């Protein structure tokens, strides 16, 4: 029996050394979770065992469990590197259609704009609108708009916030007269092809709390335009009864191509302070090429373009399991679902018990290298001790055989 005990100890110690060696080998593997061998005693079935005289026949490795503790997060600066801070796994669809789960966020873009892993698995996520609002709750492979430019958008609205000087004299009421164009501002709008349409506004005080607004399109003389009128209340705010007509713009390429743009002066004021413009904006833009990508803590992927625009292009999904110990590990830092793990529970980062994402960073292996080296020495001693039991039993048997 001592041979059996020693042999089981050698086998179990060797298995333990295999596990420790695997941990040490993957001390620098992104997203790797360390494992440990868990042992159990072996006893032979016997009717005498109930009397407490069963000495046992050795040891076995009951299971190799994984430790899903959080690894350190290291900043890399790569926009497509993503770390999970908290619970959850990335969900990927492998080339053969199998679903796998990983903590390794080293993603790449293929030629079709798909976010893939080093093994070719496609990252799964949710579709969103341009503002990042989720459009569905079924995960799909994430594809980014890398194939072409974002098209131009024609301007539809102009918004301005400014203060007109309440102490300014009425036009033609003083000598010398206030020059036309003293109070003016300008910006560029865009036509349907993304061509710039210069737009100017000139303000001329015609009565107390009343101003005429002259406009200029494509460099035309604003004095030749038909003005519209804005009025202010006694507290210096724009009179709610003021009606501002839309401004008709012309394309620089074809003056016959005209389009209307709404004008919003609602936040403008008339106070006893110098004239000043605090905000001037419009909603059109020229076409642009993709320049960079960003990923928020909530997993929303934002595409940034050369025209200064940003658009959401999807949201990374995370998956968790009731029993993560039931997941089956596979090569490449992946796990697969099993009956023991339960069904995957999907959601967006930060929802429920799911962790948040950190873009431009990776989660390090959670292997404690110092601890593993100590464990290796302990396993080596156990191996040597089990070998010694076999050697001792062999010496005893030899003594018995040599008796005369």
UniProtKB/TrEMBL annotation:
Instruction: Give the subcellular location.
Output: Bacterial flagellum basal body
Which SUPFAM superfamilies does this entry report, sorted A to Z? Flagellar hook protein flgE
**Gene3D superfamilies this protein is in?**
Flagellar hook protein FlgE
Q: Which UniProt keywords apply?
A: Bacterial flagellum, Cell projection, Cilium, Flagellum
What would be one Gene Ontology cellular-component term for the protein? Answer: bacterial-type flagellum basal body
**Flagellar hook protein FlgE/F/G-like D1 domain: residues covered:** 83-141
GO-annotated biological processes: bacterial-type flagellum-dependent swarming motility
**Flagellar hook protein FlgE D2 domain location:** 164-285
Question: Any idea where the Flagellar basal body rod protein N-terminal domain is?
Answer: 6-31
Similarity section: Belongs to the flagella basal body rod proteins family.
Kindly provide the name given to this protein in its UniProt entry.
Flagellar hook protein FlgE
Q: State the organism of origin.
A: Hydrogenophaga crassostreae
Classification lineage:
Bacteria, Pseudomonadati, Pseudomonadota, Betaproteobacteria, Burkholderiales
